[in-house]
Design brief:
The structure is a homodimer.
Chain A: E1 12-16, H1 21-32, E2 38-41, H2 49-54, E3 62-65, E4 70-73, H3 75-84, H4 96-131, H5 138-161, H6 172-186, H7 202-212, H8 215-221
Helix pairs in contact in A: 1-3, 1-6, 1-8, 4-5, 4-6, 5-7
Chain lengths: 239, 239
């Protein structure tokens, strides 16, 4: 067993950051499956060397099990692992082709949406403010805000043709997508109303309201960070 | 069925680029499993609108089946899909925790190594030259070359402690990693010899030679691109 200072190990512990969309998705998956877990908060902008021992990529989230003898790193490996445990309700459809569509959308959010939107916005608006290191980069911020709109059009296209994001059943794709949107919404950077395209995004809003009403999601929306006040509609399922 | 101009559809067709590491990994997986497929070459630097219909992310590879009614996009969803079909030899170990380690290493190569090394090097040295669009960016090139070394240390650490990259059995992690290294090696950008750290990278070289000797890998090493001559050791299993 590797020595992991400052983290009290229990049977299953998620190392996460409350406003990290990748961590949020894992928390939601664990709750959807009624799997008990403890959490330990790490700051993604300053990964401690002890954490690099666990995940050399230096990214969150990290799931530890059995007093740290099981170390599972990164969003997709973690959620696939939890699914492989076959505990609770499955979050993948059964057919290989339908599973592939779920994974495609998860990747789209965890790689493309993350790099285009969730990472720049949280980095510029949250990480830099809390760490007091650097000032927000206006080019990066503007690009992030512009990308939100482009990407919402694609999400609107998907949910206009399907009951849920990757097909007709609720899946991991809905969890991952909602986790990313929730972080952007915490920052009040989703143009739900008072925007020229607000109407185009109505299908997204309807779908997001359905995810918001799930018990597993409501737990996330209760997170608070000192110095940040989310908009009023943020935690309200009927927004 | 969506209309896909200029691509003759057969039962299973992989849309790929010969020197795209992500595409190479899929070709190797299909060959390892003895799955028949045809290929169609696309240039990753200029994705045609017809391709965006298939994959809105605009990335390669794309796997089409059943005359295009099945569209599977992106490396990890494609390889997981092929595994889910349960054809041929499995490329994942059986235990969930061992599978998670395979997926962690795949992600490390397909996201981190790709962005730090394989993408900048192929973009600056191959894409720009063939497309005649832009000149190589020296900052990006230098960063890619510097990152190769850092990342080879990590690979050396992994293969020094294990028989194969993700554990004691050959897995998808070895295929994905070798696919990325093969592209960098085609460009003669791996410091195997005549380098201060060449000795540190010997475990990587031994592991890579073992992957090179597989039939599925030798097929990839026969690819040629007009105007580019790989180094002599490139296609030689005993290099």
């Amino acid at each position: 067993m590797q020595e992991i200072p400052k983290i009290v190990l229990k049977n299953r512990i998620l190392i996460h950051y409350p406003l990290c969309p990748l961590s949020r998705a894992v928390r939601m998956v664990l709750t959807e499956k009624n799997i008990d877990f403890d959490v330990s908060i790490e700051t993604p902008w300053k990964i401690r060397p002890e954490l690099l021992v666990l995940n050399p990529a230096g990214t969150l989230p990290i799931l530890l099990e059995d007093n740290g003898s099981n170390i599972i790193c990164d969003i997709q490996p973690i959620v696939e692992y939890i699914e492989d445990l076959q505990l609770g309700q499955p979050l993948f459809p059964t057919s290989p082709i339908a599973k592939a569509e779920v994974r495609r959308i998860c990747n789209w959010f965890n790689i493309k949406f993350y790099h285009d939107v969730s990472l720049p916005l949280t980095r510029e608006r949250i990480w830099k403010r809390i760490s007091r290191e650097g000032t927000p980069d206006s080019v990066s911020l503007r690009a992030g805000l512009e990308n939100v709109k482009h990407h919402l059009f694609y999400v609107a296209h998907l949910v206009s043709n399907r009951n849920w994001l990757a097909g007709n059943v609720f899946s991991l794709a809905d969890i991952v997508a909602a986790a990313h949107l929730s972080v952007v919404d915490f920052l009040d950077n989703i143009p739900w109303t008072h925007h020229v395209h607000a109407r185009d995004f109505e299908p997204v809003r309807d779908w997001y309201a359905r995810v918001k009403s799930r018990k597993s999601f409501r737990a996330l929306l209760g997170d608070s960070i000192t110095g940040f006040i989310p908009p009023e509609h943020y935690a309200n399922p009927d927004f």
